[in-house]
Design a protein that fits this description.
12 strands, 6-stranded mixed beta sheet, about 20% strand, about 50% helix, 6-stranded parallel beta sheet
Length: about 325
Amino acid sequence: MPNRKWLLGLIVLVLIFGYVLIRFFSSTMKVDELVHQIEQSKTEDSSVKHVVLIAQELDNPFWREMEQGANQAADKLGMKIDYMGPIRINPAEQMELLEKSIAAKPDAILIQGINNPDYDLLISHAIDQGIPVLTVDADEPGSRRLAYVGTDNLEAGKQMGQLVVKNTEGNGRIGVMIGSELADNQRLRLEGFRSVIAAAPGFEIIDIRSSNISRIGAAKQAESMLNQHGDIDTMVGFSALDAAGISEGVKASDKEGVRVYGFDDLEVTRKGISAGEILASVVQQPGEIGAKSVNLLDHWFKGEKLSGQYFIQTNILARERMKNGGSSQ
């Protein structure tokens, strides 16, 4: 019997190792193929400026909307966007894509900051080779990137805090879901939110957990949080899939009357707001971020300087605003 258990354990380990190995080679082949596409397209028309946009997650609706905005601006300015990213969120693969992209020598690179010293070195390597780098969505402020384009995440967090306080009568016991404990944009949103809640009498943050930027993760963490803290009456999510996941977690916990707030306006979030399961969402403008980034690069290519941070405004999406076909300022 012990030998049989040992054999089964060995088989499981071999299968896991094989799966990891296949994933590694698949990822490497995909990265090499994307880089080959950049090199080939540059050879076909050297007069066109080629800009690499590396997403946090390839088919995430937020990043696809940013790609669309970047492409629309690029079409008007005679540029070409080479869009790539991990299938699932994977900072190590983002770094590998950046390294390979630098080797392909594009005219510019747009990347998400991931708060990593090795990432900063890669950005410096690109700059040393004359490749301008802009950060989008999340900044890498300690790096040599030329500029950041995206949401003022500290102010967006404050905006969320003001929304919660305004819509709650007198007091609130709050559970918070962040996408990642490592992401700078999530940290800043939480910092801004905390500053407002700390100054509001009768309001308290009871628990903070990470969804790992996953709807399923948000649902599981929300259910667990509500089961552990039965007096939580408000839940806030700071990444795009959190609100939908929180709503599912609320249902699973059989807790009624929990006010749910989210971030961004994915279709699933809009449906939740329409159904009254989500009260409101702080909405970013990823298409505008993509377009603004490309327009700034055009200025750079023409000899103008870039510096600092270029913030794109956020709006509030609520049920009454959706009926009127828009979102509030």
